[in-house]
Amino acid sequence: MSTKSGRGQVAGLPTWDRCAVMGVVNVTPDSFSDGGHWFDTTAAVKHGLDLVTEGADLVDVGGESTRPGATRVDEAEELRRVIPVVRGLASEGVTVSVDTMRASVAERALAAGAALVNDVSGGLADPAMIPVVAAAGAPFVVMHWRGFLSGGNVRGTYEDVVSEVVDELHARVEAVLAGGIAPDRIVVDPGLGFSKEAGHDLTLLAHLDRLRALGHPLLVAASRKRFLGRVLAGPEGAPPPARERDAATAAVSALAAQQGAWAVRVHEVRATADAVRVARAVEGARAEGTGAPATDARARAAATGAADAGTGLSAQPAGPHERGGEGDR
């Protein structure tokens, strides 16, 4: 794994001196937190551009909800939803990730300008996925996945969730490598909310170092998920709606950045963009304090209180966004 600030870089993608922010555009009518808001191609492209203005480094476009019990869309409909949005954003210079479990959608999206394939099944849902990604030389996100979220798969059973997720991800990465995807183009994702209960998600967040030890950049996708609602509700209360979990999401983004995550995937970008930049400034200050060379001039300037001359710490205009709650996109 190529490293910078210990979090790694992904061949074929831009490099960032901090945890990157992946904004989400769900081109679906039924995603758990914002289904239907960006279902129109024009609205979806505009939303993606707004996310970049708010501080997103890359934008993840998906046309299929993965919330528990969601009905899969057919291939033609997924293509109809996704490809025009990918093409529209890529034509504006946006670094685009395509969120799909179908090889055909990934192949068409890459041809339309996508730079990254984000498959929540890690290539398990479609046997053709790994050969397609390998042939394209594209980066690939390998998420921990135990099947579609229906029946008994909605809540997974674990004796040691960290060890089991690490072991299962390791096995999946080995399969992806055997399929021809280069090691410096693999990203791993613990799959928060996918066949996991709130306690499992929190335990995984507490042990991101174990996931980073797999040797690949780490994507953390906690945005608005159900476990955050459980935390905010407390022992007796009702969880707040998904769209009221953005402050909690930003807190997770800061914690993930502090623990060396390569990127965080979020619906509402502004707060997370600020959070990861503050985390980077603290990282720079820590390096200054120990006498180690800070790797980023902007972080050094922020740590010493210098006036902003491109620190990237200023707030940006606000705006909504999306990814799924418990396993949902």
Your description of this structure?
By secondary structure, the protein is of the alpha/beta class. The protein is 39% helix and 10% strand. The chain contains 11 helices and 8 strands. It has helices at residues 41-54, 75-90, 103-111, 129-136, 161-178, 198-206, 208-212, 226-233, 246-258, 269-289, 297-303; strands spanning 20-26, 58-62, 96-99, 116-119, 140-143, 186-189, 219-220, 263-266. β4 (116-119), α4 and β5 (140-143) form a beta-alpha-beta unit. α3 packs parallel to α4 and α6 (198-206) crosses α8 (226-233). The protein is globular and about 50 Å long.
Can you tag this structure with a few keywords?
single chain, 11 helices, 329 residues, alpha/beta, eight-stranded parallel beta sheet
Pattern of helices and strands: EHEHEHEHEHEHHEHHEHH
Q: How many strand units?
A: 8
Structural class: alpha/beta
- Overall outline: globular
What's the Cα radius of gyration? Answer: 18 Å
Unreliable stretches (pLDDT < 50, length at least 5) are 1-5, 296-325
Count of separate DSSP helical elements: 11
| Share of helix, binned | 25-40%
Layout of secondary structure:
Blueprint: E1 20-26, H1 41-54, E2 58-62, H2 75-90, E3 96-99, H3 103-111, E4 116-119, H4 129-136, E5 140-143, H5 161-178, E6 186-189, H6 198-206, H7 208-212, E7 219-220, H8 226-233, H9 246-258, E8 263-266, H10 269-289, H11 297-303
Parallel strand pairs: 1-2, 1-8, 2-3, 3-4, 4-5, 5-6, 7-8
